[in-house]
């Protein structure tokens, strides 16, 4: 047959029954569009959330930071921006810190800013010479910063200078010799300590005594600069007032940079804070995994610094936590969408098969005529394949174009490959069906044994693949060891549904046959005839498969949606730590006590991050992020919070995160060298997050060298009947510049974030598409079986059966398959969520530490059952319409 003849034949075949081809075209448009749009929408949502997550990391927490207690060792070295006398002291430290940054991977190094640092001593008593009865006690931290004069502007007095040959002075009270040291501090801190310029105060250490003279006060050039966020109590003093003892104000004073080399006693136990900015500009979700790997590797390293007497630095950054949190959420969402999406994709394949069968059946006369005129089977197949290609390729192009226009992102060449495969699928299916239309129709119950063997082989293959896919999914979570998608694993829900449908079809004749035997003994014709047809001439296997998959996906997706919704609320409550949370500048205990007096507030607990501390578990030592909290307040705020953190005894009580507690092997623990005792795990009760961390009470803050308790976050518990929004407004007014969040706000924010929103939309679309495709499959199957059913309907009508008898007969015929689909689909739908939560960690999606517990909405499940029954009733529509006309 010539090419023009084949094209003409293909055109005549299409015109013979265009409706079936139109269905195929619409199906290809939808499938292509969804396959291309879903990953693009997911990637875009992940990119948007990545930028939001990084932007939400506030201030200094965005930087890469290290805090360590070490002895500074003076040494010369290259130190850009420092004067020679300063470089002679800090040059070695400066050079070694820059070398640490230079050793970072090239891509990461481009995102890291210049390294910066400030060292501070422990608080030293620095009371006024003749304090009044109501005067505060004074403490001073000595800060060593070679760049301090570049950060501040002197507003009164002069910068301190250091004279190593200055004569010793005598303490007028004790008579001891004091070494004179000039210092400067912020104007606000000087006011807090009531320390005037020119005033001298005696400061003592374990090794020597000093006379501090305040020579100048300053204001910050940029009060919002990162240095003031990394080094609190500089621009304003920390004031501690518990109402029982004399209030204490602790400020930071700066000595001349070169004084560090000559005052080793002051540098004893110096806490060095080192930081560098992290530039996330232009970071995309595709770049994020590599950046996270580099940053995690960099922060996991412990670098020995000779200028710190061999002490090690370990960096950390909340930006890394934000990136990894988004990546975990994105990967979990993608895996979940692929798992759930495999179901509608399978139903789409079933619908394509039905449409091809319908198209070929409708073209039976034209094909028979062409064969009678000499067309070979190969020519017929090629003509049908051509029709499929002419329908599928343009439809795939339309679907791809719509996906590219409606979703942002670059064009990935693999998308064109996917579109081409979907576009050519109708050609392959049409050609595969070409061997069937010329056969004389036969009864299904009189099939040859060969068909039984083929069906058994199909059942075994599908069941085997379903079992293998499930095992792979449980073991690998839907990914290969290389991190790529394991396609055999992610289609486990589809294969399980297919295996269940095949099993149900194989087992259905037994109960249907038993019912038929009982009906045969009775006088009613509809029950007997309907069951006889269901047993002897079953039809709609593909439609049954589509309905089973649709019910399974609908039930599973409904359970997952309810689980995510309730899990989000639970995780939000845990992340917040209470009913309302405020994060902002450092607070004093007086500030926290004042918040407790606000209307509607029942309890207030503060949280102060103090960086990483050295924690030992027997011989093992590691750096663990630590937080100082008000243990008594948190025990009142959180019912599950361990009691006894505020016991005020030694060993120091501490609370560990679940990850830390799981790693603790014994009870020989220390924090910064001080004996410590684990009293329990807080989970996320303090609203801190996942990973390893520990909590100590405010009473132990100074014992472990963290200084006075200066919380940066407060968690508020509401009084009964209090309005969270009103309390939040009160907190915002009391804490200018603080970020105040209520539980309702947190839940709304979590639900509105792009990735969970995309996931919910994806699950909803999966339910909708699976339902629509199942209905389409049922209607198409009914259309294919309509001729036989209409013939029977007319025969019964001629024999005197009324319309009710005819309708009841066909209802009974459809009922066994429908009930089987409901039972099998419902069982699989209940099993799929358990499979999913076992393979995919839902905790990142809901924003919690632990995966949420599965939950179901009874109303949603009832709607699914009603929808399935309605879909089954649609299969009777052609016969009901015909019987209505016959009765008229």
Characterise this structure:
The chain is an alpha+beta fold and 888 residues long. Helix content is 54%, strand content 16%. It has 29 helices and 23 strands. The strands form 3 sheets. Strands 1, 2, 3, 4, 5, 6, 7, 8, 9, 10, 11 and 12 form a 12-stranded mixed beta sheet that branches. It has a 6-stranded mixed barrel with strand order 16-17-21-18-20-19. Strands 13-14 form a two-stranded antiparallel ribbon. Helix 2 runs parallel beside helix 12 and helix 19 packs antiparallel against helix 28 (858-874). It starts with a helix and ends with a helix.
Structural class, judged by helices and strands? alpha+beta
Level of helix content?
Answer: 40-55%
Taking pLDDT < 50 over at least 5 consecutive residues as the criterion, the unreliable ranges are 444-450
Radius of gyration: 38 Å
Mean pLDDT: 80
Number of helices: 29
End-to-end Cα distance, whole Å, is 50 Å
Major sheet: size, sense and barrel closure? 12 strands, mixed
What is the topological layout?
Blueprint: H1 3-16, H2 18-56, E1 64-70, H3 84-102, H4 106-109, E2 116-120, E3 124-125, E4 137-144, H5 148-151, E5 152-157, E6 169-170, E7 177-186, H6 187-193, E8 200-204, E9 209-220, H7 226-230, E10 238-240, E11 248-255, H8 259-262, E12 270-276, H9 288-300, E13 303-305, E14 311-313, H10 318-362, H11 364-372, H12 377-406, H13 413-432, H14 449-476, H15 487-490, H16 492-507, H17 509-520, H18 525-536, H19 541-576, E15 580-583, H20 589-595, E16 601-617, E17 620-629, H21 631-637, E18 652-656, H22 658-663, E19 669-671, E20 674-681, E21 694-697, E22 713-718, H23 724-734, E23 739-742, H24 743-752, H25 754-798, H26 803-839, H27 843-846, H28 858-874, H29 877-887
Parallel strand pairs: 4-11, 7-9, 17-21, 18-20
Antiparallel strand pairs: 1-12, 2-4, 2-12, 3-4, 5-9, 6-7, 7-11, 8-9, 10-11, 13-14, 15-22, 15-23, 16-17, 16-19, 16-22, 18-21, 19-20
Helix pairs in contact: 1-12, 2-10, 2-12, 2-13, 2-25, 9-10, 10-16, 10-19, 10-25, 12-13, 14-16, 16-19, 16-26, 17-18, 18-26, 19-24, 19-25, 19-26, 19-28, 25-29, 26-28, 26-29
């Amino acid at each position: 047959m010539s090419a023009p003849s084949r094209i003409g034949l293909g055109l005549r075949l299409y015109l013979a029954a265009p409706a079936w081809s139109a269905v195929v075209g619409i199906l290809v448009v939808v499938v292509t569009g969804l396959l291309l749009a879903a990953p693009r929408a997911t990637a875009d949502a992940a990119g948007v959330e990545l930028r939001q997550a990084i932007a939400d990391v506030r201030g200094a927490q965005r930087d890469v930071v290290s805090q360590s207690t070490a002895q500074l060792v003076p040494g010369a070295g290259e130190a850009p921006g420092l004067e020679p006398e300063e470089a002679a002291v800090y040059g070695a430290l400066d050079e070694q810190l820059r070398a640490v940054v230079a050793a970072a991977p090239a891509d990461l190094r481009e995102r890291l800013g210049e390294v910066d640092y400030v060292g501070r001593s422990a608080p030293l008593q620095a009371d006024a010479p003749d304090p009044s009865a109501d005067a505060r006690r004074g403490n001073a931290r000595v800060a060593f910063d070679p760049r301090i004069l570049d950060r501040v502007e002197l507003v009164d007095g002069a910068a301190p200078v250091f004279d190593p040959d200055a004569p010793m002075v005598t303490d007028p009270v004790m008579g001891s010799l004091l070494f004179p040291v000039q210092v400067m501090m912020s104007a606000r801190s000087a006011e807090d300590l009531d320390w005037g310029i020119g005033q001298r105060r005696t400061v003592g250490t374990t090794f020597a005594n000093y006379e501090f003279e305040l020579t100048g006060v300053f204001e910050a050039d940029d009060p919002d600069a990162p240095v003031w966020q990394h080094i609190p109590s500089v621009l304003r003093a920390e004031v501690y007032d518990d109402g029982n003892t004399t209030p204490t104000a602790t400020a930071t004073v700066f000595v001349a940079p070169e004084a560090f080399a000559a005052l080793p006693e002051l540098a004893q136990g110096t806490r060095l804070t080192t930081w560098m900015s992290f530039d996330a500009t232009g970071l995309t979700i595709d770049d994020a995994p590599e950046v996270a790997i580099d940053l995690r590797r960099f922060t996991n390293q412990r670098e020995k610094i000779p200028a710190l007497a061999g002490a090690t630095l370990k960096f950390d950054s909340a930006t890394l936590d934000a990136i990894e949190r988004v990546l975990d959420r994105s990967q979990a969402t993608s895996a979940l969408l692929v798992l759930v999406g495999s179901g509608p994709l399978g139903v789409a394949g079933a619908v394509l098969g039905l449409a091809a069968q319908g198209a070929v059946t409708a073209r039976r006369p034209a094909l028979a005529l062409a064969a009678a005129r000499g067309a070979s089977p190969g020519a017929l197949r090629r003509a049908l394949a051509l029709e499929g290609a002419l329908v599928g390729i343009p439809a795939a192009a339309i679907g791809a174009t719509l996906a590219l226009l409606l979703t942002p992102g670059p064009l990935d060449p693999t998308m064109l490959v996917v579109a081409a495969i979907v576009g050519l699928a109708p050609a392959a299916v049409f050609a595969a069906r070409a061997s069937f239309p010329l056969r004389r129709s036969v009864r299904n119950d009189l099939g040859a044994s060969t068909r039984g063997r083929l069906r058994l082989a199909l059942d075994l293959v599908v069941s085997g693949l379903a079992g293998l896919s499930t095992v792979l999914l449980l073991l690998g979570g839907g990914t290969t060891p290389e991190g790529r998608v394991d396609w055999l694993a992610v289609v486990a829900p589809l294969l399980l549904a297919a295996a269940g449908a095949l099993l149900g079809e194989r087992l259905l004749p037994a109960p249907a046959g038993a019912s038929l035997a009982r009906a045969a003994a009775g006088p009613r014709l509809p029950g007997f005839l309907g069951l006889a047809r269901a047993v002897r001439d079953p039809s709609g296997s593909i439609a049954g498969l589509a309905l089973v998959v649709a019910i399974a996906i609908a039930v599973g997706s409904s359970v997952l949606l309810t689980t995510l919704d309730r899990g989000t609320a639970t995780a939000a409550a845990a992340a917040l730590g209470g009913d309302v949370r405020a994060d902002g500048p450092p607070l004093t205990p007086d500030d926290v006590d004042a918040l407790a007096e606000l209307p509607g507030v029942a309890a207030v607990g503060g949280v102060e991050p103090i960086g990483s501390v050295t924690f030992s578990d027997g011989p093992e030592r590691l750096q663990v992020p630590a937080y100082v909290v008000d243990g008594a307040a948190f025990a009142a705020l959180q019912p599950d919070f361990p009691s006894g953190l505020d016991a005020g005894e030694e060993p120091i009580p501490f609370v560990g995160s679940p990850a830390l507690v799981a790693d603790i092997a014994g009870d020989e623990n220390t924090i910064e060298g001080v004996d410590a005792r684990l009293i329990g795990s807080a989970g996320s009760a303090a609203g801190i997050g996942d990973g390893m961390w520990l909590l100590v009470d405010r009473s132990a803050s100074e014992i472990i060298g963290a200084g006075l308790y200066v919380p940066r976050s407060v968690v508020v518990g509401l009084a009964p009947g209090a309005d969270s929004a009103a309390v939040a407004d009160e907190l915002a007014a009391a804490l200018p510049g603080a970020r105040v969040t209520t539980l309702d706000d947190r839940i709304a924010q979590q639900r509105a974030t792009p990735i969970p929103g995309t996931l919910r939309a994806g699950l909803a679309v999966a339910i909708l598409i699976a339902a629509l495709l199942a209905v389409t499959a049922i209607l198409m199957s009914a259309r294919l079986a309509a001729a036989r059913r209409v013939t029977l309907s007319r025969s019964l009508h001629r024999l005197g059966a009324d319309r009710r008898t005819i309708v009841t007969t066909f209802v009974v015929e459809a009922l066994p398959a429908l009930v089987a689909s409901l039972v099998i689909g419902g069982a699989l739908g209940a099993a799929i969520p358990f499979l999913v939560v076992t393979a995919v960690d839902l905790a990142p999606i809901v924003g919690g530490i632990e995966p949420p517990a599965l939950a179901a909405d009874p109303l949603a499940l009832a709607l699914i059952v009603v929808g399935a029954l309605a879909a089954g009733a649609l299969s009777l529509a052609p016969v009901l319409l015909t019987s209505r006309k016959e009765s008229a």
